[in-house]
Amino acid sequence: FTENLRGLSPGEETEFEVEYPEDYGEPRLAGKTVRFHAREKGLRRKELPEVNDEFAQDLGDYRDLAELRDTLRRSIFASREYEAQREAKDRLVEKLVDAHQFPVPEVLIERQIRNRIEQRLTDLAMQGVDPRGVKLDWQKVKDSQREPAEREVKASMLLSRIAEREHIDPTRDEVDREVDRIARQQREPFAAVRLRFEKDGTLGRIAHHIQTEKTLSFLFEHARKVAGTEGE
Q1: Of 50, 87, 93, 158, which one has the fewest beta carbons inside 10 Å?
Q2: Where are the alpha helices (DSSP H) in 39-171?
């Protein structure tokens, strides 16, 4: 679409077709050929400020450009470190599930399949797609979600068992900090949000998420120690 607009001057009109691939991210356009009629309304150019000490001070509480660059460098490093740890933790969970074969209650698998489908529908709605207008074979969708759903349930059960054995529990302060963060985002009083979360079960889900993250961190640190010992 963008390539067909290149070279146009304000006021000029053009017509063109765009063929969207089958795996295009927008379901309404995937695999279709769409004809567009476009008129160039105007051209704009982004004016970037000079990168200097004044620019750094305008962005926040920075003394100079050097301090801003140092802060950005540390932020990028922390972000990359977090992503690397997240990938390593995901691999640990995959190996944990592969190493333990046991039957999973069907009701839990069905619930997780439903959660996965509901999340996908929510994602479509956030992209502006009406899920009711998407023609899908829901039985095929459900069947395709069974294996990942079963692995997710197994992972949750294993992590809960490890947390129980290692006495890993979320503290009240940890739960309250997360509730406070959400309350600030929603601009609501902390007490009101906590009470609502207690009633609708969200508080329990927050506690479980914190416990899972602490258990993953425990496994990650344990794996690093083992790897370090083997390397010595």
Answers
A1: 50
A2: 53-59, 65-99, 106-126, 138-165
Cα dihedral 181, 185, 191, 196 in deg (nearest 10): -100
- Give dist(CA 129, CA 92) in Å, integer: 35
Tell me the C-alpha to C-alpha distance, in Å, between residue 161 and each of 66, 158, 170, 223: 48, 5, 15, 18
225: left (phi over 0), alpha (psi -120 to 50) or beta: alpha
Q: Is 53 exposed, middle or buried (0-12, 13-18, 19+ CB in 10 A)?
A: middle
pLDDT tens per residue across span 14-28: 999 999 888 887 777
Q: What is the pLDDT of residues 36-56, one digit of tens each?
A: 999 999 888 888 889 999 999
Closest CA to 69 of 83, 55, 48, 49: 55
